[in-house]
Write a structure and sequence with these properties.
The chain is built from two helices and three strands. The chain has 89 residues and is an alpha+beta fold. The relative contact order is 0.32.
Length: 89
């Protein structure tokens, strides 16, 4: 089985109230290393068999037409999801 990850983020000019709320909460928890937070969406797509260029193209199309709102969001990542060692999951 192959896995594809799709990440969608608000466009930079779009306000991100959830990211702002998280960013405000972190210092109250003693976490002060971060200067800003943006919150987006992450989708994990599973396919039968290995991930191919055609499947990645289908995932990109799904990301642009269904998984994101192109008026306020950018698709920032569509790629095969691998483990920390670089192998396919």
């Amino acid at each position: 089985m192959g896995h594809i990850i799709v990440e969608v983020m608000p466009k930079p000019e779009i306000l991100d109230p959830q990211g702002k709320a998280v960013g405000s909460a972190l210092p109250r928890l003693g976490i002060t290393s971060f200067t800003s937070v943006r919150q987006g969406k992450c989708f994990h797509l599973t396919v039968d068999g290995p991930v191919t260029d055609e499947l990645l193209a289908d995932a990109r199309r799904a990301a642009e037409e269904v998984l994101s709102n192109p008026i306020i969001e950018d698709v920032v990542r569509v790629e095969e999801l691998t483990d920390a060692a670089g192998g396919a999951l």
